[in-house]
């Protein structure tokens, strides 16, 4: 296990980050105070999983990053970014890790504080780090997890993966304070997604998730789970869910890069159906892990538990 120390260095193994072309120990990577990421949260990020050193759907993550950069009109050439992902795993000794994540963020760069954009010649700031990820153990997963509903106070373009995560952080903190692991974002009576994951609601053999729109983040794991659900013969609906429908659900689960497939068995203190992890979630989790092995070309033994 790697233990985080207060200076941001890791207690074991390399913690080499990338900052605008330089490779540095984390504690030496410093950003000027006028960086627009620091002052305005003016930037985008993505996080891609690697299983046994092989990235899962890296191109889809980079497509989403490109979309965000275009929407925010940040000039940044993504051509070296795929290689950067491989290099950061190598530099951190993570090419054999059962699971690791690479975080990449791009801001509009350093400029005197003014709301309007600086000249287009301003260089974007790029920051990346890689981290070993400890997957949930099979027995903890099998007990299921708890979530709470929370008002969605995010802006109107959450389809862009911006750095501005304060409403997500507040929602997630409220969940923690209530003794739950996740917050479910609710707007105008519709339950949209989690604070850091997408939401699926199961009614018998029908699997429902909110359609892609400006109100949810189009998760790469969500996309994969929709594919897998169809392949496994389930009925799939991309449709919004009024919050009161949760009480009729047979199962609820969340998906995301670090969430994978996560069964939710209690919401706001009430059990989902019988309060146990259901067969559809279990089946999709198995199919998801099989797909990970196939797409990443790694044997089951390389992935650790579950
Ligand atoms: N929804 C939100 C708000 C998120 O922050 C994330 C991931 O960070 C997701 C959904 C899941 O997206 P992905 O599956 O691409 O990790």
Account of the 3D structure:
By secondary structure, the protein is α+β, with helices and mostly antiparallel strands. The chain has 7 helices and 15 strands. It has helices spanning 36-40, 58-72, 81-91, 138-143, 166-177, 220-231, 279-296, and strands spanning 16-19, 22-25, 43-51, 54-55, 99-107, 125-132, 145-151, 182-187, 190-194, 198-203, 206-209, 235-238, 251-256, 260-267, 270-271. The strands form 2 sheets. Strands 7, 8, 9, 10, 11, 12, 13, 14 and 15 form a 9-stranded mixed beta sheet that branches. The protein has a 6-stranded antiparallel beta sheet with strand order 2-1-6-5-3-4. A hairpin with a 2-residue loop joins strand 1 and strand 2 (22-25). The longest helix is centred in the C-terminal third of the chain and has 18 residues, at 279-296. It is globular, with a radius of gyration of 20 Å. The protein starts with 15 loop residues before the first strand and ends in a 10-residue tail after the last helix. It binds pyridoxal-5'-phosphate (PLP). Pyridoxal-5'-phosphate binds at residues 193, 196-198, 217, 219-222, 255-257.
């Amino acid at each position: 296990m790697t233990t985080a120390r207060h200076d941001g260095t890791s207690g074991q193994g390399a913690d080499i980050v990338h900052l605008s072309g330089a490779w540095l120990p984390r504690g030496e990577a410093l950003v000027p105070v006028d960086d627009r990421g620091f002052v305005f949260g003016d930037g985008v990020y993505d996080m891609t999983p690697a299983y046994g050193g092989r990235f899962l759907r890296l191109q889809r993550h980079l497509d989403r990053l490109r979309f965000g950069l275009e929407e925010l009109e940040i000039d940044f050439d993504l051509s070296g970014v795929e290689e950067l992902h491989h290099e950061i795993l190598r530099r951190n000794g993570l090419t054999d890790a059962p699971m690791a994540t690479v975080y990449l963020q791009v801001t509009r760069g350093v400029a005197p504080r003014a709301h309007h954009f600086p000249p287009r010649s301003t260089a974007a700031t790029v920051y990346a780090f890689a981290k070993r990820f400890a997957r949930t153990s099979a027995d903890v997963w099998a007990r299921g997890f708890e979530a709470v509903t929370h008002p969605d106070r995010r802006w109107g373009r959450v389809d862009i993966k911006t750095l501005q995560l304060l409403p997500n952080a507040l929602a997630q903190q409220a969940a923690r304070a209530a003794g739950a692991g996740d917050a479910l974002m609710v707007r105008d009576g519709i339950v949209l997604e989690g604070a850091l994951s997408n939401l699926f609601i199961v009614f018998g053999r029908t699997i429902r998730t909110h359609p892609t729109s400006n109100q949810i983040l189009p998760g790469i794991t969500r996309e994969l789970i929709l594919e897998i659900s169809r392949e496994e013969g389930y009925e799939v609906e991309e449709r919004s869910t009024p919050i009161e429908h949760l009480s009729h659900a047979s199962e609820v689960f969340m998906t995301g890069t670090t969430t994978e497939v996560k069964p939710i068995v209690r919401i706001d203190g009430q059990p989902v159906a019988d309060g146990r992890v259901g067969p559809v979630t279990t089946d999709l989790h198995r199919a998801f892990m099989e797909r990970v092995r196939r797409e990443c070309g790694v044997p089951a033994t390389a992935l650790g538990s579950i």
